[in-house]
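User: For my dataset I need records formatted as: sequence, then structure tokens, nothing else. Please produce one.
Assistant:
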Amino acid sequence: MESPRQNCALISLSFGGAIGLMFLMLGCALPQYNQYLPLFVLFFYVLAPIPYSIARRVVNDTDAASNACKELAIFLTTGIVVSAFGMPIVFARAALIHWGACALVLTGNTVIFSTILGFFLVFGNNDDFSWQQW
């Protein structure tokens, strides 16, 4: 059974995701920008949670010491997030997109990755859900 705290968190995370995607779409679809290259950032949104999710599934968290698998997953996730912030800047420096579109995409990145982090903080320690039932 979902708690009221989790329901409120889920609604807040949904709102944050929608706001972040709105900024991304504004950076692409406004008439003065009219360039859809920033949509490649969507691949990074999908890829970002995968390494950490796999590491949580594989790693046994009974010990308090950090392990290499989890640290590798955090390293890969960090590389994906940095790439998502770097790609619009490279596009803007190469004059493929406008700097205003770059700013909107970077704002959207900040909101989306904060939402992904919030999801892992709120739902990551949930002991009611077990991957073993899959």
